[in-house]
Structure prediction request, 119 residues.
Amino acid sequence: MLQKEKDIYKRIDRFVLQGLTIIKEVPLDLVNREILKQLIRSMTSIGANAREAQGAQTKREFIRCFSISKREAKESHYWLSILSKINTALEEKLANLIQECDELIAIISAIISSSKKNL
Prediction:
């Protein structure tokens, strides 16, 4: 596996772990609780699908797995944005996480694009 490939998996893991750490600081009221459930599912799915891509047997399967990761990253971005708007005390921490999510979406998009060229 190339170093670039290893880096995306490490970066996704770091993003998820940072997100889960920040989530622990969010007050658990009725609204936050529902948003957090969705956010935890989508954030952890980014890494799970990227890891599944590692074991893909075909290029098409690899692209499919990373496409799901991208979709889950976009969903995570949405939930982080909403969470940030209703929890202003955590806005700065969440802004950093949103920025990292944007960067992951761009990297995953590039992985998908370059993989499609090599089909």
